[in-house]
Amino acid sequence: MARRTKEEAAATRDSILDAAEKLFVEQGVSRTTLQHIATAAGVTRGAIYWHFDDKGALFNAMMERVTLPFECALSGLGKSDASTVLGDLRQFFVEIFRVTETNPQARRVLEIASLKVEFVSEMDAVRVRRRQSKGDLIAQVVERLELAQSGGLIRQDVDPRLLATGMWALMDGLIRNWMFEPGSFSLVALGDNMIGTVLDGVRTG
Predict the structure, then answer these.
(1) What are the φ and ψ backbone dihedral angles of 8, each rounded to 5 degrees?
(2) pTM (2 decimals)?
(3) Which residues contact 6 (CB under 8 A, 6 or more apart)?
(4) For labelling, which of 14, 21, 64, 75 has a CA lying 20 to 30 Å from the CA of 153?
(5) Cα-Cα-Cα-Cα dihedral sign, residues 197, 198, 203, 205
(6) Could you give the CA distance from residue 112 to residue 122 in angstroms, rounded to a whole number?
(7) Helices H, strands E: what count in the chain?
């Protein structure tokens, strides 16, 4: 009986998080109350408080159960060698675009974190996580660009950190614009083309 109760509690927690994710996308975080979430999940507010201290804790739990697109891609970036580094770097960004375009849950949570939340008080953890993810991504890209530069693949006058920061801004801007109107263009196709254009512009030959 205890095991069944534990499984039921986990199912209730998941249904609360699912409802919160849906409502946060539809109406934003600040306009969504715990009562809205309870009603959508078919539970009482007391059930929400049994699992989460407040809306901030609920929000953070929703974020923690999803790996964001740029976090998904990071694991494969450090495996390049000098001969394949630019192609691998381009594919790294394409994978971010692909996950954003094809993984509904990752896209929803990214949309909430990017467009539907104010980074204040208990929601500040989202800003901290985003800053950490951005820092990790830029550091990895800088390392790959330095490898390409040492191998003579990109020009010596290129500043790897400046280029990496610009590529982050390009990626972030494309994703934000696509999320406003997902049907207006293919994120993967346009993203691949634009990242390729940037890399082609710094090649040595």
Answers:
(1) -65, -40
(2) 0.78
(3) none
(4) 75
(5) positive
(6) 15
(7) 10, 0
